[in-house]
């Protein structure tokens, strides 16, 4: 059984640990390790993560398969949409329906808040994630670039009407 629980400030250290581990698992095979480490040190530094967690525009959620923590979501309220800012799963839990569950819950949260569009950005080199999002009904509407460490990468911007 998959469960979702809202992250609270007391969970900050656990969120940091999960964020770092899941990001490295997702990108060490795609991006230079030094660039990944540099990004992680900056974005998941405790003060930065705390600022994100306490920002009222953001909500974080832990995902659990049974009693095992397997991933997390960061949702950001945009003007008329809900941004799926982060969706990360630990490697051992991919392909088990956790990602699908997370997208469904994100849609429910958006609908409860009278929002009718989900948006996200995904690295163009992350083909498994792109395939997943396309399968879930997201479509590419633009692209930009993002810097990770010393390198820039193409970021596909996708959305989905709900």
Question: What does it look like?
Answer:
The protein has one domain (2-161): Aminopeptidase. The protein is α+β, with helices and mostly antiparallel strands. The protein is globular, with a radius of gyration of 15 Å. The protein is built from 5 helices and 7 strands. The model has no long low-confidence stretch (mean pLDDT 96). Strand 6 (139-148) and strand 7 form a beta hairpin. Helix 1 (12-27) runs antiparallel to helix 2 (33-43) and helix 1 (12-27) crosses helix 3 (46-54).
What are the defining features of this structure?
162 residues; alpha+beta; Aminopeptidase; globular
Percent in strands: 35-45%
CATH class: Alpha Beta
Radius of gyration using CA atoms only: 15 Å
* Shape-level CATH architecture: 3-Layer(aba) Sandwich
Report the oligomer.
single chain
CATH topology: Aminopeptidase
Organism: Liquorilactobacillus capillatus DSM 19910
Pfam families: Acetyltransf_1
GO molecular function: acyltransferase activity, transferring groups other than amino-acyl groups
Protein name: N-acetyltransferase domain-containing protein
């Amino acid at each position: 059984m998959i469960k979702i629980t809202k992250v609270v400030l007391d969970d900050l250290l656990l969120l940091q640990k999960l964020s770092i581990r899941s990001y490295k698992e997702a990108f060490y095979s795609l991006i230079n390790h030094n660039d990944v480490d540099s990004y992680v040190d900056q974005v998941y530094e405790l003060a930065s993560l705390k600022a994100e967690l306490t920002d009222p525009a953001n909500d974080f959620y832990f995902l659990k398969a049974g009693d095992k923590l397997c991933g997390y979501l960061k949702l950001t309220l945009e003007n008329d949409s809900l941004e799926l800012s982060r969706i990360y799963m630990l490697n051992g839990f991919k392909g088990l329906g956790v990602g699908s569950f997370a997208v469904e819950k994100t849609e429910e949260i958006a609908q409860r808040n009278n929002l009718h569009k989900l948006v996200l950005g995904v690295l163009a080199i992350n083909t498994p994630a792109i395939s997943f999002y396309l399968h879930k009904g997201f479509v590419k509407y633009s692209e930009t670039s993002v810097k990770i460490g010393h390198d820039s990468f193409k970021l596909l911007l996708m959305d989905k009407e709900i």
